């Protein structure tokens, strides 16, 4: 049997009637002991016997490419093959592509693009030969500077923003610049491939297996049913592993040529250029307000970049379309075509930098009007979607702001900057709202019920988010089983296709599929007992109807039952605007001597539907807030303006926040049930927590010392220049 649900309208909340107390409880990750003891097998571990090793050769610059010494490299000790198959000269696919990433015949689109693979008996031998490769590049490298390119696209306009700006009591017209950023996941991109006849198996570090399977099959020109992908454990992704990447394609091609397994791992420096980057942005924000701070006009225009032919345009203004009410609006992106590494999804694509810049501009408007920053935001919360009039499925920004303010201790704050000093340190506080679109996609799951317990199966991945834990809780809640009697299998395309991990839709989408599979099992059990499913209670391995109890083992008669759940996105997104909301608060210290900035404390207040597991959800919020600190203070991908290669292509020079940069982080969850989000009423939270986090930090810097930094990150030199 299968229960299929298409999300066309509000769903019924049945969690309370299950009465198991598993959903909503802080539950440790069942995969945690495997990871901390080193027993969890990642992509490039536990290699097959007779495995060969491949190292990618890359282009030093964009242009027409020639590997000048291929024959010489093939003669190196231990080298088995020099693979120059045109199928591997590809960009990394964008998430959800479902088809082979673009490639150029004999050309490199950007500096660092993979053009060949050296395969050898050992990694050291392959690396030695790859470093001896002589790659000749000729031709025009193309445009490198996005600001100098002729951009495509036009923003959408409603009303007359220019008139609103002229007639308003208060206006803000500012431009924020954000650099390219890297995902910098802990586990590098890696793949090991082996063939059995005409079928290939690839264990790789991937987020979206059903799409990745289609992409790899397209690259190899074989049917999808001949491709099996394995990704039971993924050491972080943040969007960089949404699409198939060159190492997986190269490993599969080499393994087919050699007739033996091949492992290809990107070195850290390769990751920074081969993997999708976040686009840099130039964001012009215009705000027009009356004397009471109510917005009359809102403009948010962004310039972003990507390679020619790439569909992905960083959706910088995505949240600005619905975050605040204003009758006169200009909102949208333009894209410059450049010869730089492919721009794609990096955690919270669009809103991560868009909300952050917009919330800094809102703080500037609060200063201009003399209105408390929280009050200003509360006055401009829309009743309906400002652009299209759709109702909101649920809206908890007011609660996130007010409840967060109370817990942070916002009341009594002196609004003027440079009012509090401790020695050489100026102390200030800042706030920012958070908003993020919420979507449900398609997913399937299967549960097999036996007298021993339940086995949950889906090709959904766990990239460190806690998927193993929450799917265990969902199945246990619906089937009346303790967590130690539920086993979850993930990351194998032989299993039903889940949603994959991306867009913060994994928990809600695949979680709902698991819930539906459990309901399928409940209906089958109810049929055997001759009762309605709603009259059935499952608890402690028993089925209870009225005053009778039936052991599951007896109902199953030494056999098993299988339930299948399938959820699909329907008309709901056309009927309502689904979104998640939050508020960030930060206290900062700024040195008047050096311009050094320290985060003293942060609090995030988030409304993201039902919280399935406070332990894993809080961990996601901590991660998002840490990303916000990095965006505001440390992270910047430096690109050489001559050929576009990444200058700081390692973790020594690309500065992600470390323990010393991150203070204790406090997380508050706002109670919310959104029936439009599916039967579990769950929304995405991981990416919401990054949106606006950096703005709270930057606004607190201004409150502390009076310096506005509009070109990120706010490094000491920029702060010190403002202080001077």
**Category by helix and strand content:** alpha+beta
Radius of gyration: 27 Å
Question: What is the rounded distance between the termini?
Answer: 71 Å
Shape: globular
Q: List low-confidence stretches.
A: none
- Which range does the strand content fall in? 25-35%
Mean pLDDT: 96
Give the biggest sheet: 7 strands, mixed
Number of strands: 28
Helix content: 25-40%
Strand order of the largest sheet: 4-6-2-13-10-11-12
Question: If you had to describe this structure to a student in words, what would you say it looks like?
Answer:
Strand 11 (199-204), helix 6 (209-220) and strand 12 (227-230) form a beta-alpha-beta unit. The strands form 6 sheets. This protein has a 7-stranded mixed sheet with strand order 4-6-2-13-10-11-12, sandwiched between helices. The chain has 724 residues and is an alpha+beta fold. The longest helix is centred in the last third of the chain and has 24 residues, at 506-529. Helix 9 (351-369) packs parallel to helix 17 (693-705), helix 12 runs parallel beside helix 13 and helix 16 packs across helix 17 (693-705). It is globular. The N and C termini lie far apart (71 Å). Helices cover 26% and strands 25% of the residues. It has 18 helices and 28 strands.
């Amino acid at each position: 049997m299968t229960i299929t649900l298409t999300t066309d309208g509000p769903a019924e909340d049945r969690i309370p009637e299950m009465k198991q107390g598993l959903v909503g409880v802080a539950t440790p990750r069942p995969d945690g002991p495997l990871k901390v003891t080193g027993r969890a097998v990642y992509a490039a571990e536990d290699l097959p016997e007779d495995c060969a090793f491949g190292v990618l050769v890359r282009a030093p610059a964009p242009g027409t490419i020639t590997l000048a010494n291929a024959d010489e490299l093939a003669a190196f000790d231990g080298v088995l093959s020099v693979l120059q198959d045109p199928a591997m000269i590809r960009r990394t696919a964008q998430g959800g592509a479902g088809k082979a990433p673009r490639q150029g015949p004999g050309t490199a689109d950007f500096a660092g693009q993979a053009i060949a693979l050296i395969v050898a008996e050992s990694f050291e031998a392959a690396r030695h030969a790859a470093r001896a490769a002589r790659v000749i590049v000729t031709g025009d490298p193309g445009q490198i500077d996005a600001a100098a390119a002729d951009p495509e696209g036009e923003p959408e306009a409603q009303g007359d923003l220019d008139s609103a700006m002229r007639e308003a009591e208060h206006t803000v017209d500012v431009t924020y610049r954000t650099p390219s950023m890297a995902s910098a996941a802990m586990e590098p991109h890696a793949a090991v491939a082996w063939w059995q006849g005409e079928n290939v198996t690839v264990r790789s570090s991937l987020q979206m297996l059903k799409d990745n399977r289609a992409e790899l099959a397209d690259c190899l020109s074989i049917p999808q049913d001949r491709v099996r992908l394995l990704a039971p454990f993924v050491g972080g992704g943040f969007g960089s592993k949404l699409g198939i990447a060159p190492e997986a394609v190269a490993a599969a091609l080499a393994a087919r040529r050699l007739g033996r397994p091949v492992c290809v791992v990107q070195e850290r420096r390769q990751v920074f250029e081969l993997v999708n980057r976040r686009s840099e942005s130039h964001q012009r924000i215009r705000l027009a307000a009356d004397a009471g701070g109510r917005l009359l006009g809102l403009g948010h225009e962004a310039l972003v970049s990507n390679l020619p032919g790439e569909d992905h345009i960083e959706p910088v203004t995505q949240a600005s379309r619905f975050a605040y009410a204003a009758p006169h609006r200009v909102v949208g992106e333009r894209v410059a075509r450049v010869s730089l590494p492919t721009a794609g999804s990096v955690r919270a694509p669009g809103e991560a930098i868009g909300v952050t810049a917009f919330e800094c501009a809102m703080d500037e408007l609060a200063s201009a009007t003399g209105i408390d920053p929280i009050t200003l935001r509360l006055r401009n919360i829309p009743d309906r979607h400002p652009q299209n009039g759709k109702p909101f499925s649920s809206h908890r920004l007011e609660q996130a702001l007010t409840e967060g303010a109370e817990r942070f201790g916002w009341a009594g704050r002196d609004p003027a900057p440079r009012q509090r000093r401790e020695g050489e340190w100026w102390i200030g506080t800042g706030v920012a709202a958070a908003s993020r679109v919420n979507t449900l996609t398609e997913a399937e799951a299967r549960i097999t019920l036996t007298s021993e317990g339940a086995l949950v199966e889906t090709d959904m991945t766990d990239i460190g988010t806690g998927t193993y834990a929450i799917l265990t809780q969902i199945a246990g809640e619906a089937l009346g089983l303790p967590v130690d009697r539920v086993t979850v299998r993930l990351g194998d395309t032989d299993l039903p296709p889940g949603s994959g991990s991306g867009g913060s839709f994994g928990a809600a989408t695949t979680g709902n599929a698991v819930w539906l599979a459990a309901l399928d099992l409940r209906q089958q059990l109810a049929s055997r007992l001759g009762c309605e499913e709603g009259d059935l209670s499952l608890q402690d391995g028993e089925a209870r109807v009225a005053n009778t109890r039936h052991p599951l083992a007896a109902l199953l008669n030494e056999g098993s039952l299988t339930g299948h759940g399938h959820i699909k996105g329907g008309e709901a997104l056309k009927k309502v605007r689904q979104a998640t909301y939050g508020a960030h608060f930060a206290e900062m210290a700024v040195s008047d001597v050096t311009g050094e900035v320290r985060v003293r404390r942060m609090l995030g207040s988030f409304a993201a539907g039902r919280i399935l597991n406070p332990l894993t959800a809080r961990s996601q919020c901590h991660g998002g807030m840490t990303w916000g600190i990095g965006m505001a203070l440390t992270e910047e991908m430096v690109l050489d303006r001559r050929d576009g290669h990444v200058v700081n292509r390692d973790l020594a020079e690309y500065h992600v926040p470390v323990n010393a940069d991150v203070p204790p982080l406090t997380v508050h969850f706002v109670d919310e049930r959104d029936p439009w989000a599916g039967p579990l009423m769950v929304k995405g939270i991981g990416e919401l927590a990054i949106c606006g986090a950096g703005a709270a930090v930057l606004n607190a810097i201004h409150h502390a010392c009076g310096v506005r930094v509009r070109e990120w990150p706010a490094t000491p030199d920029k702060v010190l220049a403002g202080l001077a």
